[in-house]
Design a protein that fits this description.
Blueprint lengths: L3 H13 L3 H14 L10 H14 L3 H10 L12 H12 L3 H15 L10 H4 L4
Helix pairs in contact: 1-2, 1-3, 2-3, 3-4, 4-5, 5-6
């Protein structure tokens, strides 16, 4: 079995160097090599999160949306605080779909009891909860 955490560290280095295409290619390759159901493989959610966020960095909203939707498969397995919905909200917001962003952020806010909106760089998302 592949050591996903080791690969995540390697992907982080590629990301820091701005090698987004290579990151996405490697994420997809690793993802495709995982046995089904992929969401039961330890740390596989990190590939989904990286796939969505790196696709956003590339402004590839189609791929970011695809990865973010995969995150919903982790609900009730890993994502118990609306992490998948929060990621969908981020992607929706980035692509200018404010209505979907509001919807997904509201779900994440409810599931997390507000904890999803703690921390830095989320004030623009929190404003949509009003």
């Amino acid at each position: 079995m592949i050591d996903i955490m080791k690969k995540i560290i390697e992907l982080g280095e590629l990301y820091k160097r701005g090698e987004f295409d290579k990151c996405i290619s490697e994420i997809s390759e690793i993802w495709d090599s995982l046995p089904d159901p992929k969401e039961t493989v330890p740390n596989s959610y990190l590939l989904v999160e990286y796939g969505a966020r790196i696709s956003l960095a590339k402004k590839d909203y189609v791929k970011a949306w695809e990865w973010a939707n995969v995150s919903l498969k982790y609900n009730d397995i890993r994502n118990r605080m609306g992490e998948g919905e929060f990621l969908l909200g981020i992607v929706s917001f980035a692509k200018g779909d404010v209505e979907n962003a509001k919807k997904y952020f509201a779900i994440a806010n409810e599931k997390s009891e507000g904890r999803a909106f703690e921390g830095a760089n989320i004030s623009q998302y929190k404003k949509l909860l009003v």
